[in-house]
Amino acid sequence: MIEILTWVSIxxxxxxxxxLLLSLIGGLDIDVDADIGPTDADSAGTGGLGIIKGVLTxxxxxxxxxxxxxxxxxxxxxxxxxxxxxxxxxxxxLNYLAVTLLKNDSNVNYSMDDALFQSGTVYLKxxxxxxxxxxxxxxxxxxxxxxxxxxxxxxxxxxxAVDVMDIDGEYAVVKLTDK
Length: 179
Hints:
Elements lengths: L1 H25 L7 E3 L2 E3 L9 H21 L4 H27 L16 E6 L7 E8 L2 E9 L10 E8 L2 E6 L3
Parallel strand pairs: 5-7
Antiparallel strand pairs: 1-2, 3-4, 3-6, 4-5, 6-7
């Protein structure tokens, strides 16, 4: 019995490690999507551990714990019960860690409208009239570089604090920040 549990846990753990290496090296994500009722739940994309990864984790941890408990002369019933609880705990822990890590995932896409009424700094001088320069504006937590025109047609020097008042096509229309 102990030898069978050893092989089960080694094979399940080996497949998990192989899947990890394939995802790290080649970007390959082997997983299964689950249809749950009227909604489509992608177990990998929604923070779930994934069906295959979850089952392999459960099998590997459960079989290792049962093997260790049987080797220390515990009763088979107690060993199986503690093994199943340990497998579920490992699965829940890994799922929690995956969800926690995916909370840091953010949408890096932005539109020019996201810059409206944001503050920024002139990076490349904006000459007077219809001439353009470049400003740095923080959008969604990242500093973005945008082409800019002056709101009132006056020149704005490099390093000046500005506010984005409007968007004109591909240009941010900025004015000096009121002090």
